[in-house]
Amino acid sequence: MNNKNNKNSPSEKVYNFIINKIKSKEWHPNSKIMTENELCQELNVSRVAVRQAMEKLVALGLLKKKQGAGTFVTNIEASTYMNSLMPIFLLDDKDMLSLLEFRIYFEYGNVRMFMENHDKEDIEKLEYYYNEMKNNVNDIEKFYIADFNFHNTIALGTKNPIVIKISEILIEVLKNHQSILYKSIGPNIGLEYHQDILKAIKANDGKIAAMFMRRHIEAAINEYKKAKIIPK
Fold it and tell me: Name one GO molecular function term (predicted).
């Protein structure tokens, strides 16, 4: 109940306004943003609400204050995207490629760990999400949500809190770029390899399941490179 109220609060209104300005590139890195008074007038909110939102964005590393000069958009480096506090919507093509390359090793290891720690319910969830993918190949959002949940179920099945936390961050990044991924990669690769991964897991063959996971991510990377014309 409180979360719902916070989303509609004046402070959240200011926060979302600034986030959208940065996301749309209207306020680019190192540029000076509107003053507190200007934000108050533009959004019809109090100075307290503006300050609360700006303090939150400064704490997140998206804004920085310079005494006597004003507030500026931070020049965010790619390495900061994996900060669990950082809003994760600013990835460019090279950053997305780096993320996909990281997943080769991360998700390969997850499958091996999953095989040692999963339970029957985890398998049932994987089957459910795979079927959701099959049933929603023409619905971008539903297809990729099911895809993300399939991978996150494997992470949860490892029962390793660090793996689970990293997976949550990765999923949030990918959710923010699902339309880019869909247009670049499409559903066919996901359906083919998820079927193979699930089949191997059900056969209790962790080595083969991990191999298919690795091939899945590698195939996705190749398609992404082709679509985005990124040098190999």
Answer: DNA-binding transcription factor activity
Inter-residue contact 221 to 97 (CB < 8 Å):
yes
Same domain, 120 and 71: no
Q: How far apart are CA 158 and CA 112, in angstroms?
A: 8
- Decide: helix, strand or coil at residue 80: helix
- Do 50 and 129 fall within a single domain? no
Given 75, 96, 113, which residue is the final one in a domain?
A: 75
Asked whether the beta carbons of 114 and 158 are under 8 A apart, the reply is yes
Global confidence as pTM: 0.63
Strands 63-66 and 70-73, bridge-based pairing:
antiparallel
How many CA atoms lie within 13 Å of 145's alpha carbon, on the beta-carbon side? 8
| Segment 156-184, tens digit of pLDDT | 999 999 999 888 878 877 776 666 666 67
Mention every residue, 6+ apart, whose C-beta is less than 8 A from residue 90: 22, 23, 76, 81
Q: H or E element: which one contains 63?
A: strand 63-66
Burial letters 55-67, b for 16+ CB under 10 A, else e? ebbeebebbeeee
Q: Are 212 and 200 in contact (CB under 8 A)?
A: yes
Q: Report the distance separating Cα 81 and Cα 161, nearest Å.
A: 20
